Amino acid sequence: MSKYQTEIQRRRTFAIISHPDAGKTTLTEKFLLYGGAIAQAGQVKGKKNARAATSDWMEIEKQRGISVTSSVMQFQYEGFCINILDTPGHQDFSEDTYRTLMAADSAVMVIDAAKGVEAQTRKLFKVCALRDIPIFTFINKMDREARDPFELCEELEHELGIDTYAVNWPIGCGKEFQGVYDRRERKIIHFTSNTNARAATATQIELDDPALPGLIGQAKKDQLTDEIELLDGASCDFDLDRVRHGKLSPVFFGSALTNFGVEPFLEEFLRMTTAPLPRRAGDELIDSFDDDFSAFVFKIQANMNKAHRDRIAFMRVVSGRFDAEKEVYHVQQGKKLRLSRPQQLMAAEREIIEEAYAGDIIGVFDPGIFSIGDTLCVPGKKFQFDPIPTFAPEHFQRIRSVDTMKRKQFLKGVEQIAQEGAIQIFKTPYSGMEEVIVGVVGTLQFDVLEYRLRSEYNVELYKEGLPYEFLRWIVREEEDPIPFKEEDLLLPGDAKLVEDYKGNQLLLFASRWSIQWVQERNKQLKLAEFGGAKF
Ligand code: G4P
User: Fold this and answer.
1) pTM surpassing 0.85?
2) 261 Cβ below 6 A of ligand 1
């Protein structure tokens, strides 16, 4: 194996999802701590106090205590090079989460043991399931009073519609959380102390070791024996293939805060996951181990650092090795270019890098040329990765600048923010450029838009809510290039024909009923629920 193949082989790239407060930040921090990427707890960007340092443009984040943006961190652990993609906790930004998942090969879902499946877990899980990516469940906060582990697994299966396999099983909870039983090794990992340093110290002991009752108490031992028997008899068999296809979720119990169970989780996770997965580009499958570099943009983030007013395009390296010295080909623009200031996030630090490998995420300075889904590859190649699907917005506003003299800034700002994927923008055919129809998946995105237009473009918005709740893309065959006109279509009063800025035509509807109405009366129309690729 060549050096670069070895580098690719040791890479793992996963996204971490959870309902806010389940412990995603704490768990991420522990991973980084074990990997030596940070020296002490409290350094991860997601922590409330440090958050301001990395995304201070997002006053909204601070004001509301939510994470609007997602970021990427890399660390080394036992020979592996691991990329963690953090996802925004708030449901209004699930589109961002979806894009982030496109860049990941698996997901870690953190669940609060006292709460089980929560609203946001449900929503994020749905987004994961769209891609069939492997989902690993970490049931956190076992050091507190927790719900019955059987009940928690059942709830996961029932609510999320995925089979589960408990890889380990907790011994007690709260102050009595003493360890986990490793089902594969048939051993107990008994946690002995929490030094809050790298990892919890633990001893391993067989289930039938006569010393066990002395260690955990006879009652706990009897309970554990019964539970294991029940588990072995009732649960699904472990099937790695089903795990890798997102059909079976391995479940782990632990406590990120006290480090209990975090290391066993990380080790099993690394054992069960694969090296970076290929990505589809039309009829081609681009393999991670291909010699030639390729990547796609999955996220654009503006003003990560207010002092520099910068805009960073995040891309997932799909194949080969990225070399900062070499020119790459930007397929959508048909241009050769050198990626400017390529960087990686190491915990809270940004670091300029010279090279990266398949599986890695790099951020490059974007002078306004990249869009979500763009392909980069070596000059001479021209394939395009399958587009990242766009979610249909559910809320719409008509907006314009209060000050008509600021039309230019207004348009520039709205277009840039749309290019980043934070909002979707539309216009009515033949309408002027004074006003724009904005569509969002969650209403908080409107607040972000307004805030950013004011602070970055000095534009005050005039907004008017629109009654639409549904949007459908009009599917066009290549052979019918002439767009529909409103008079060609039979539309009810609460439906509207609009265009996006790429020339695609869409219909806005106020009710499901009118979608049906339009379909029944316009047989020539083919409507799609998602833009871009099909799921
Ligand atoms: P999030 O990123 O998913 O939103 O959650 P985060 O890690 O910020 O954790 C939310 C709260 O839960 C934090 O407490 C954190 O310390 C606590 N927590 C995380 N994991 C565990 C665990 O395994 N056991 C227990 N008992 N608590 C846990 P906080 O008081 O809100 O914040 P902080 O002041 O501790 O930072």
Assistant:
1) no
2) no
Among 16, 17, 19, 21, which is best to mutate for testing ligand 1, by the most ligand atoms less than 8 A from CB? 21
- How far does residue 256's CA lie from ligand 1's centre (Å)? 8
CB of 178 within 6 A of ligand 1: the answer is no
Query: What topology does CATH give the domain 395-528?
Result: Alpha-Beta Plaits (3.30.70)
- CATH match for 279-377 among 1.10.10.10, 3.40.50.2000, 2.40.30.10, 2.60.40.10: 2.40.30.10
CA 179 – ligand 1 centroid, Å = 20
Ligand 1 atom having least distance to the Cα of 26: 7
Q: Picking from 344-353, 368-377, 393-402, which range would have the lowest pLDDT averaged per residue?
A: 344-353
> Which of 34-38, 43-47, 173-177, 332-336 is predicted least confidently?
43-47
Instruction: DSSP for 421-453, please give it.
Output: TSSEEEE-TT--SS-EEEEESSTHHHHHHHHHH
3-272: CATH class? alpha beta
Residue 200 banded pLDDT, cuts 50, 70, 90: low
Beta-sheet pairing, 80-86 with 72-77:
antiparallel
Task: Order across the sheet with 201-206: list the strands.
Answer: 168-171, 179-182, 187-193, 201-206
If one residue of 175, 257, 263 were mutated to test the ligand 1 pocket, choosing by the most ligand atoms within 8 A of its CB, it would be 257
Domain regions of the chain by residue span: 3-272, 279-377, 395-528
Q: Which of 292-302 are b and which e, b meaning 16 or more Cβ less than 10 Å from the residue's Cβ? A: ebbbbbbbbbb
Q: What secondary structure letter does DSSP report for 532?
A: S
In the reported structure, the alpha carbon of residue 27 is separated from the centroid of ligand 1 by a whole-number distance in angstroms of 9
